[in-house]
TrEMBL record:
This is Butyrophilin-like protein 2. It holds the Pfam family V-set. GO terms for biological process: cell surface receptor signaling pathway; cellular response to lipopolysaccharide; immune response; negative regulation of T cell proliferation; positive regulation of T cell proliferation; T cell costimulation. The keyword Nucleotide-binding does not apply. It is found in: Cell membrane. It is a single-pass type I membrane protein.
Length: 177
């Protein structure tokens, strides 16, 4: 018997999530031929346990270094998957399959829409501030046509929004990298 969570799972970008998979069998977990996690919608191998050994190098490149079993829990039949540094493309359906001889059991877990992390929300706020500064500068330029006002408008239109957008894109690139 292979058991999972029984409901959809939600997570935030950049964080980690645990997809549950428990194998209840008369066969000791270390003697199972194979337990694997894969994407059902794309057929990608996420992580493989075969003949008593975790084989992270067999994972699809998208999951290498991010997917792992709780190795101390495997003797108890716990083959839950820890997926770190969640990305947008991680959204989808995952299946945990256990094989031993002719016996096969599986459970599926759906990872639904990933929410915005605190850093993503900060980036959105920075972009909104940049937009607001641009509008305020334009209004100020229309109301005052003086030299001092022109300098203020140039600074506000050229430097402030660009600096904020630059910071926002650097943060976004670091997160999604």
């Amino acid at each position: 018997m292979v058991h999972g969570v029984g409901h959809a799972v939600f997570a935030y970008f950049g964080e980690e999530i645990v997809l549950n998979c428990s194998v209840d069998s008369h066969i000791p977990p270390e003697r199972l031929e194979e337990v694997k996690w894969r994407r059902t919608d794309q057929g990608m191998l996420v992580l493989l346990y075969q003949h008593g050994e975790v084989l992270p190098d067999s994972s699809h490149e998208r999951y290498r270094g991010r997917a792992e079993f709780f190795t101390t829990e495997i003797p108890k039949g716990n083959f839950s998957l820890r997926l770190r540094n969640l990305r947008t493309e991680d959204k989808g359906e995952y299946i945990c399959e256990a094989h031993s001889g002719l016996l096969l059991g599986n459970t599926t877990v759906e990872l639904l829409s990933l929410g915005l992390s605190t850093t993503h929300q900060l980036i959105v706020v920075l972009c909104m501030i940049a937009f607001g500064l641009s509008i305020a500068s334009l209004i100020h330029f229309i109301k005052t046509g003086t030299d001092r006002g022109v300098m203020l408008v140039h600074f506000s239109l050229v430097f402030s929004p660009n600096i904020l957008i630059f910071v926002a894109f650097i943060l976004w690139g670091f997160i999604e990298g």
